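Posting this for the archive.
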Amino acid sequence: MKHTSHADYALRVLLYLRVAPGRRGSVGEMAEAHRVSRHHLDKVVNRLAAAELVETTRGRGGGVRLVRDPETITVGAVMRAMESDFAVVECLGPARYCRVAGVCGARSVFARALDAYFAVLDEATLEDIAENDLGLRGALGLLHGAGGA
């Protein structure tokens, strides 16, 4: 299964905010740190805000910040907030054109696999995946007072 770049970028935004000084940053800073499109990150941040994982504030001193403790944000919740389709086979989705749908066992196998996948992601928190603070800060250019407020 492959997720969209928005799901990937959402995790990157949250990791940045987790290790940023004051757990705050601007979309521009995060785009530069991750070397990704600011336009794409704007969309990602808007979806994260709609999911109540981050808060955005405009103007001087504004930016993006985490609104929940990193120990309470699961990777599974982030993926669900960013993705709309987890139908790895057609019969898991809303449209069913497969001629053998309902008479083969593929649906139950893939449904169980998807449940197991989310069971793992629901156990992992933002705090878990940000375990290497110093390494993340270095990789994102947040050492020596750079970036963040």
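The chain has seven helices and three strands. Helices lie at 5-19, 27-34, 38-50, 75-82, 106-123, 126-129, 133-139.
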